[in-house]
Specification:
CATH class: Alpha Beta
EC number: 2.5.1.78
Low-confidence stretches: none
Bound molecules: ligand LW54GNZ2, the ligand CC(=O)[C@@H](O)COP(=O)(O)O
Order of helices and strands: EHEHEHEHH
Protein name: 6,7-dimethyl-8-ribityllumazine synthase
Enzyme class: transferase
Structural class: alpha/beta
CATH superfamily: Lumazine/riboflavin synthase
Distance between the termini: 20 Å
Function: Catalyzes the formation of 6,7-dimethyl-8-ribityllumazine by condensation of 5-amino-6-(D-ribitylamino)uracil with 3,4-dihydroxy-2-butanone 4-phosphate. This is the penultimate step in the biosynthesis of riboflavin.
Radius of gyration: 14 Å
Family: Belongs to the DMRL synthase family.
């Protein structure tokens, strides 16, 4: 049993709830424990994971959020920078699954968030579990 922290950006509450449902089910089905930490937006997710990782309380993390394109360049900043910073943390050896969906509209988001359809939350949780397994395999 490993301890996972789902870090969710509560920007689109209903979509997030579906992503979290999928992530939690995947973690619990695999025999792991899941807590949830809420941050305002996707840009806060990497910082929150870095702080939580430093505490040593968690073995792995699942980033959950929804970024929907608006009218300005802000979409590129939020989508790109959150992914870039999560990747940087992953390269530091932190097991993270990235379940921040970056979409053109709400319909695309619904299909991806729904556990019965594309289940991107569950997919991200499984990726975090896979990375933790690899980290444990190569731990000295
Ligand atoms: N537009 C979206 C954001 N924007 C907010 C930023 O993530 C951040 O909270 C703000 O710039 C303060 O630092 N966040 C999302 O998660 N989704 C969006 O569509
Ligand atoms: C992430 C976004 O693009 C969006 O939430 C911001 O919209 P806008 O570019 O219209 O300010």
């Amino acid at each position: 049993m490993a301890r996972f922290l789902i870090v969710e950006a509560r920007f689109y509450a209903e979509l997030n709830d579906k992503l979290i449902e999928g992530a939690r089910a995947a973690l619990e089905d695999a025999g792991h424990q899941a807590d949830v930490l809420t941050v305002p937006g996707a840009l806060e997710i990497p910082g929150a994971i870095a702080l939580a990782a430093e505490s040593g309380q968690y073995d792995g993390f699942v980033a959950i959020g929804v970024v929907i394109r608006g009218e300005t360049y802000h979409f590129e900043i939020v989508a790109g920078e959150s992914a870039r910073a999560i990747m940087a943390l992953t390269m530091d050896g932190i097991a993270i699954g990235n379940g921040i969906i970056t979409v053109e509209n709400e319909i695309q988001a619904q299909v991806r968030a729904d556990p019965a359809q594309k289940n991107k939350g569950g997919e991200a949780a499984k990726a975090a579990i896979a990375l933790l397994d690899i980290a444990q395999r190569f731990a000295h």
